[in-house]
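User: I've been trying to design a sequence by hand for this structure and keep getting stuck. Would you show me what you'd pick, starting by listing the structure so we're on the same page?

Assistant: Good idea, let's start from the same input. This is the structure you sent:
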């Protein structure tokens, strides 16, 4: 990545939407701008787990303001991630679709474990370099993430459905504070978080860090009250809880350092923080400077360097886990990438768009047989299911779904992907994959160099031409290619297999 490049990360959290703009400078990212708006989408889920129209409108209006700040940014410079509220929302597709139109950039809904990993990346990159084992916690609006890590590597990640917004709505709905309400909220939080005791024992980490909203808000209040700056202890939490109880109601709390956007969710946040520190035996929680959005920024830098993209390693691990035939996967990938390149004859070698398509197609080829471990007859369907439900490090949920669609479409009728095939990039990748599988059907290197492929993007047509000698030498491949031509007849794209004497 070029020094001086501007990068932007947007975190669509349950309580706040945040925009961080930084400039890449010799391995570091220097802040250029930071915007935060309290949107409270987390309390906009109705009984059926649908976002209310009002909650969606608040989010869209915030995105419109962010879009104005990002005018002139390229897609490669911006990444937008959404967390627990949109993971839960049944109507998230409606919000995401309109949000992408307003913002001008894609919105990725990421899994909880992926959120935890990115949080750790953001925290670790802004800590002094050492080899200590760390515990990182992040109490969000509707989820809490826990991470164990060492250096820049997260070794254990988890996400729990307990957050400051959700707990405040459930246990402090009218803002009333009492010993009984705090006791109920803390016990309930412990019940959800209890399994963390075995995965995150005190013996597995040396120092604990807290990231983002709740931790930062509590630490600021305690610092104003004279407690050590940048630290949270159980003594400090006990003092804060007593202050809240004496106030009786969130509206009457008079504490220096408590910002208005935190007032309504402070009760839930404190009860969860007490539960965590008690369960995990945290004596002192240190406030981290990094957060999810910083992890996203650093990941953007790493993705530019193919040797450090965590998604490649995730694909390799999944292939090994399901005993994928590595030789066949490599063979299929090489041939598929050959055809994809042939569909872009005028593209320069350093074209970033084609490079991204090549990486996605390579992942699909590497994992096209991941479902064979479950069923030989319907392995494409099982492969798609595995990818739709896997927690693969580095991938967002939409990325995995799209990868699964390529795996699903590798064989069988194309009607199931009718909508996706309207997008030219997807159609080309899928056609390249299917052609490769036909030519590699004997599980040996095919003689495909003599075949000529022509792509007419305007007419959405792919033509593959073979000479008579090739046709005579490979009658089965010829038969399968003719069947493939028929498969594409009712799709937006057409495929023609032509033979010359």
């Amino acid at each position: 990545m070029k020094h001086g490049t501007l990068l932007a990360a947007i975190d669509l959290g349950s309580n706040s939407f945040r925009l961080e703009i930084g400039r890449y400078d010799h391995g570091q990212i220097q802040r250029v701008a930071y915007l935060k708006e309290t949107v409270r989408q987390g309390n906009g889920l109705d009984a059926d787990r649908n976002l209310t129209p009002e909650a969606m409108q608040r989010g869209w209006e915030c995105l419109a303001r962010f879009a104005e700040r990002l005018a002139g940014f390229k897609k490669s410079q911006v990444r937008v991630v959404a967390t627990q509220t949109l993971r839960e929302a049944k109507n998230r597709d409606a919000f995401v679709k309109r949000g992408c139109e307003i913002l001008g950039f894609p919105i990725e809904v990421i899994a909880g474990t992926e959120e935890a990993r990115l949080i750790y990346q953001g925290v670790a990159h802004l800590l002094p370099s050492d080899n200590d084992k760390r515990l990182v916690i992040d109490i969000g609006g509707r989820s809490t993430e826990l991470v164990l890590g060492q250096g820049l590597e997260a070794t254990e990640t988890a996400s729990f459905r307990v957050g400051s917004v959700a707990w405040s709505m459930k246990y402090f709905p009218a803002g009333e504070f009492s010993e009984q309400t705090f006791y109920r909220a803390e016990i309930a939080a412990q019940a959800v978080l209890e399994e963390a005791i075995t995965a995150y024992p005190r013996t597995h980490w040396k120092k604990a860090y807290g990231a983002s909203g709740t931790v930062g808000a509590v630490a600021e209040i305690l610092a104003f009250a004279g407690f050590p700056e940048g630290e949270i202890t159980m003594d400090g939490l006990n003092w804060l809880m007593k202050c809240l109880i004496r106030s009786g109601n969130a509206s009457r709390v008079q504490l220096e350092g408590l910002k208005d956007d935190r007032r309504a969710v402070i009760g839930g946040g404190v009860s969860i923080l007490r539960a965590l520190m008690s369960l995990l035996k945290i004596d002192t929680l240190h406030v981290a400077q990094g957060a999810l959005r910083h992890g996203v920024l650093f990941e953007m830098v790493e993705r530019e360097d193919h040797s450090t993209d965590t998604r490649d390693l995730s694909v390799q691990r999944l292939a090994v886990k399901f005993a994928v035939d590595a030789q066949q996967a490599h063979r299929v990938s090489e041939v598929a990438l050959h055809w994809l390149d042939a569909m872009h004859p005028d593209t320069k070698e350093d074209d970033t768009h084609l490079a991204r398509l090549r990486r996605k197609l390579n992942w699909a080829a590497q994992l096209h047989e991941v479902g064979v471990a479950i069923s030989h007859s319907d392995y494409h369907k099982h492969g798609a299911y595995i990818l739709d439900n896997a927690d693969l490090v580095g991938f967002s949920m939409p990325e995995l779904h799209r990868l699964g669609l390529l795996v699903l479409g590798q064989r069988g009728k194309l009607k199931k992907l009718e909508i996706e095939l309207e997008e030219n990039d997807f159609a080309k990748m899928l056609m390249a994959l299917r052609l490769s599988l036909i030519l590699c059907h004997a599980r040996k290197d095919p003689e495909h160099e003599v075949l000529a492929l022509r792509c007419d993007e305007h007419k959405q047509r792919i033509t593959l031409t073979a000479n008579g000698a090739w046709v005579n030498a490979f009658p089965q491949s010829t038969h399968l290619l003719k069947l493939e031509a028929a498969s594409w007849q009712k799709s937006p794209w057409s495929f023609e297999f032509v033979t010359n004497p």
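That's my pick for every position. To get oriented when you compare it with your attempt: The mean pLDDT is 93. The first helix runs from residue 53 to 69.
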